[in-house]
Amino acid sequence: MAVPMELSCWGGDWGLPSLHPESLTVMAYAKFSGAPLTVNTINNSWRPPKGTKYNADYELSAKQGADTLAYIALLEEKLLPALLHTFWVEAENYCSVTKPWFASRIAFPLSLYLPGKMSREALNRILLTRGGPPHYSVTEVEAQIYRDAKECLNLLSKRLGTSQFFFGDTPTTLDAFVFGFLAPIYKVCFPRVQLQEHLKQLPNLCRFCDDILTCYFRLTVSGCSPSGQDTADANLQKLTQLVNKESNLIEKMDDNLRKSPQHPPRKLTTLKLAAGGEAGSPLNRLSP
Amino acid sequence: IHLLSTAAEPWPENASLYQQLKEEQILLSDNASSLAVQAFLQMCNLPIRVVCRANAEYMSPSGKLPFIHVGNQVVSELGPIVQFVKAKGHSLSDGLDEVQKAEMKAYMELVNNMLLTAELYLQWCDDVTVEEITHPRYGSPYPWPLNRILSYQKQWEVRRKMKAIGWAGKTLEQVLEDVDQCCQALSQRLGTQPYFFNKQPTELDALVFGHLFTILTTQLTTDELSEKVKNYSNLTAFCRRIEQQYFEGHDKDSSATVAARSAKRSLLR
């Protein structure tokens, strides 16, 4: 049966179990399908499941499976650049929120280096995939990616309509992905928030995020019957591999860390039961 | 693009589409993109002349191919071209509702995300293909050493991009798996319908046709890529249908018929 998997990811804040889109996607998927998943903060080592092969057997109809793939491509292509930009490239956001937040969760001296590296990688990715003529300056690229992201949000909103989830009444892989991307935009409080403001004008998407947070992340009982547990596990393993890609660097640094004195291990931050999960006072939590 | 002014002028007779040289130079991915635009314009019933130039890539306003020259406007890549054509009053997707339009856009991203990237990977990151096909073709109009320099420069550029999006670490097998997954999704979405949105073709059909037809009819070092597509009979039937309807019996110089004739492999076998 299912081997409980461990997920090593960034912790959470602002009412979210994690700030990292792919980590959120994995956690949401795990909740939806009832697969056991232990969530650790990044200090612990991560053991990848061996010999996994992606299983394309979705629990949905063939057409819905195809739609899932297409919408995920849309999210990665149109929404991800702006998400990366909001978190890692936009100077005010990065300096006042992202960098201190991530730095406070990494042991010294990595905290000096890693956020900067992630920021550079984000900018690199944006410029390489979306830069180039006819956009000759970074500001033009930025304008374009935000336009694309807003259009993507509009498309998602239209697709969701009035249903509770993207394919009816039970959540699926696509819901996990959309949640993973939308929740950080929705909940994290940045000084520069054009994407969040746009999202707030789409009430069905906000309701979608809130629903998942209340149903699946406040209670430990999952609401979905895991039909095809093996399928769900295989998909989950694939998703955890996606997160692993991001955590690769951290894994390598783990060895160095073990040799040097560490901060006391942080508690799991999965369940923030503060009412509404709103920002409260982020500055209090961001102690360097 | 100033949309208000473009709407005023009708589609001229001498509209041209620019791409690289067909026989010696053009690569898989550019051929696919060019064919997609040609298919789209044929579906809109807009006449277009294909012009082959060795330096087409440098003439393009965005550096990407193909681009069209209409009146005094130059527009490149399928997305902007679709919008440009829409401003002139022609559209294939007006009949779709909002949800269908969202779906169409999502599937177009899927094709770009997976098929196009896989084509780029194959022709610039797979060493065998690079040596035997890409390097000789890409710089072929230019004398040595310029041909090698341009070719290496482009390869470096593409590999940087692959690294940024996480494809550099993939093996060829993984890339082919992705292509298979994409084809499976497209096949499932198409089902038994003639086009993706049933009776009428849209820009999505043009895009899918451009890529699949090119993959099926281009001779590479290995057949694995085209085999992936051939596994799905409704996709090959789809390509043949569009080829017959929009490219045969038309202008003899149209790229698809010439490609079909001169390619070592044809769909009609």
Automatic annotation (TrEMBL), chain A:
Mitochondrial outer membrane transport complex Sam37/metaxin N-terminal domain: residues covered: 52-118
GO cellular component: SAM complex
Main location: mitochondrion
UniProt xrefs under Gene3D superfamilies: 1.20.1050.10
Keywords linked to the UniProt accession: Membrane, Mitochondrion, Mitochondrion outer membrane, Protein transport, Transport
SUPFAM superfamilies, alphabetized: GST C-terminal domain-like
Domain Metaxin glutathione S-transferase: start-end pairs: 149-212
GO terms, biological process: mitochondrion organization; protein transport
Domain of life the protein comes from: Eukaryota
Location of the protein in the cell: Mitochondrion outer membrane
Keyword Mitochondrion appears in the UniProt entry: yes
Protein family according to the UniProt entry: Belongs to the metaxin family.
Protein's UniProt name: MTX3 protein
Natural source organism: Ardeotis kori
UniProtKB/TrEMBL annotation, chain B:
Metaxin glutathione S-transferase domain boundaries: 180-242
Primary subcellular site in the record, as a coarse category: mitochondrion
Subcellular location: Mitochondrion outer membrane
Upper classification of the organism: Eukaryota, Metazoa, Chordata, Craniata, Vertebrata
Membership in a protein family: Belongs to the metaxin family.
Function summary: Involved in transport of proteins into the mitochondrion.
Keyword set includes Protein transport: yes
Domain Mitochondrial outer membrane transport complex Sam37/metaxin N-terminal: 34-154
GO process annotations (BP): mitochondrion organization; protein transport
Keyword list, A-Z: Acetylation, Membrane, Mitochondrion, Mitochondrion outer membrane, Protein transport, Transport
Stored InterPro entries: Glutathione-S-Trfase_C_sf, Glutathione_S-Trfase, Metaxin_GST, Mito_Protein_Transport_Metaxin, Sam37/metaxin_N
Domain of life: Eukaryota
CDD domains found in the cross-reference section: GST_C_Metaxin2, GST_N_Metaxin2
Pfam families: GST_C_6, Tom37
Protein name: Metaxin-2
An annotated GO cellular component: SAM complex
Subunit (UniProt): Interacts with MTX1/metaxin-1. Associates with the mitochondrial contact site and cristae organizing system (MICOS) complex, composed of at least MICOS10/MIC10, CHCHD3/MIC19, CHCHD6/MIC25, APOOL/MIC27, IMMT/MIC60, APOO/MIC23/MIC26 and QIL1/MIC13. This complex was also known under the names MINOS or MitOS complex. The MICOS complex associates with mitochondrial outer membrane proteins SAMM50, MTX1 and MTX2 (together described as components of the mitochondrial outer membrane sorting assembly machinery (SAM) complex) and DNAJC11, mitochondrial inner membrane protein TMEM11 and with HSPA9.
